[in-house]
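Weekend entry, working from home. Most of the wet-lab plans are on hold until the incubator is repaired, so I used the time to fold the two sequences that have been sitting in the queue since the last round of cloning. Logging both here for the record. First:
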Amino acid sequence: PTMTRPVAGICALLANIVVTGLVYAILKKPIKHTEPVMTVEEEIDLSDIEIL
C-alpha cells in the first residue's frame, strides 16, 4: 500500500513517531536532581595478578 500511496506511508510513519513519543513521555520516570555523592575509590593491588 505504501508504494501506491507514498503520502499515506509518510503519514503513518509520522503518526507512529508521535504516538511513540507520547507513550515514552508518559511512562518515563522523572529524574531526581540531587547532589552527586563523591566516593573515593580504593587503590588496586596489582601484586596478586599472575600471568601464565
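Second, folded right after the first finished:
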Amino acid sequence: MIKFFRKIRQKLLAENKPALPAGKFSKYLLYAIGEIILVVVGILIAINLNNTNQQNALTKSVDLKLNLLRHSVYQDSISMQGLIDYSKKQITEAERLLQLMNEPMNEDNCEEFIVKFSNHINIRTNIADRAIYDEMVNSGVFSEVEKQGIKSQIATYYQLSNHFNDIIKIYVRDFRDFKNNIATTGKISRAYFDPASSLSKIQRCEYVESLINSEENKLILENFIYTGIDTYEEIKALYSVLINQMINGLPKKPE
C-alpha cells in the first residue's frame, strides 16, 4: 500500500517542474514531507492491523474458554441430575423404612429393613468444577465476555453453587453427627447393619425387632430416618434450582 502511494507521489513530482530558482529545494522539501506522511500512514496502518489481530485473538480466546466452560457446566448438570435422581430414590427407600417399622418384622421384612437402613446413610453430593471459570476470572478473559446476560448467568451460577454447597454441608454434617452419636452412645449398634459383619441373619433380625419394640429406640430410629429424608430433600431441591434456573441454556450439550 505504501509503495503504491510512493509511486504516485514520485510521478507527480516528476511532472511538477519548478518555476522558481528555489524550486529544486521545494521539490526536495515536498519529497521529504511526503516521506514523513508515508511513514506516519504506515505506522497507523500497522497499529490498526495489530489492534485488529489482537482483538481477533482475544475474541478467539474468549470463545474457546466459553466453550470449555459450557462443557464443564454441562458435566456439572449431568452429575447434579444423577444426584437428584439418587436423592429421590433414597427418600422413597426411607419412606419404606418407616413403613416397615410399623409392620410385623418377619424374616423378609427384617432383611429388607437392614439393607435399606444400611443404604440410608450413603449420602452423595457434588461440587461444581470451578477450574475453567476461575482461570477465566484470574486471567481477565471473563471480563471480556461481551454478552452481559451470559456473563451474569455464569457468575450467579457459581456464586449459588458455593452457597448451596455450604448449606448441603450443614445438613450432611448434622445427619452424620446424628449417626455417630447414636452409635457411640450404644443406642444402635452398627455391627447389625454392616453387610460385612459375621453376624447371622437370625441375630440381625432379633436385634432389629428389639429396637423397634423399644419405644425409645424406635423413636430414635424414626428421627434418624426423618433427618436423612430432610437431607436428601434439601440436596434434591438445591441441585434442582441450579439445573432448572441458573444453568438453563448453558448445560446444553456443546458440539
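Plan for Monday: verify the second prediction. The chain is about 75% helix and 0% strand.
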